[in-house]
Fold this sequence. Notes:
- This protein is an all-alpha fold and 112 residues long.
- It has helices at 3-18, 30-36, 52-56, 58-71, 85-96.
Amino acid sequence: xxxxxxxxxxxxxxxxxxxxxxxxxxxxxxxxxxxxxxxxxxxxxxxxxxxxxxxxxxxxxxxxxxxxxxxxxxxxxxxxxxxxxxxxxxxxxxxxxxxxxxxxxxxxxxxx
Length: 112
């Protein structure tokens, strides 16, 4: 007996076993699968966070932005009043702790 026909029979049997049969009542229909999916009306959006300017006012936000620009080591820092105050303060904190801190401005002591 040659091994090739045996492999062909085994492969054919596996394909037939994986094929859907018309009379199998346990197989879910397409309509059931679609009705089981939750209805999505609109994509999930995180709640809008207030800008720093909205949170503490334009003048105070401007002070934070100035400190951020002065201290940030980043090439594109998040020093913008349209970002959250927390993000700006984190960048000031990071800048104040970056490198040699002996000549840091006095305001850095507020971010330790």
